[in-house]
Amino acid sequence: MFKYYLGLAIMCVIFSVMAAFFSEHGQTLTTIFLAMAGAFVAIGFVTSGRESRW
Q1: Which residue ranges run through the membrane (predicted)?
Q2: Between the CA of residue 3 and those of 13, 36, 37, what are the distances in Å?
């Protein structure tokens, strides 16, 4: 599950970079996407152990 959530986090970082350059509300969207990336990494760490496999 960690690879899945890490992939989602990397996609959010890419989206935030694209939003920073190409969006009218770049700073707001960048902040939102980076927060989502951090949340996905945190979920990935929480669900990465053997005892929490779904």
Answers
A1: 5-23, 29-48
A2: 15, 16, 13
pLDDT tens digits, one per residue of 3-52: 888 898 999 999 999 988 888 877 888 999 999 999 999 988 888 777 65
- Whose structure tokens read 């939102």? 32
Give the pTM: 0.78
Measured distance CA(17)–CA(14) in Å, rounded: 5
CA distances in angstroms from 13 to 8, 21, 46, 53, listed in the order given: 9, 13, 20, 26
In contact, 27 and 21? CB cutoff 8 Å: no
Tell the residue number behind the tokens 């969207």, with chain if given.
29
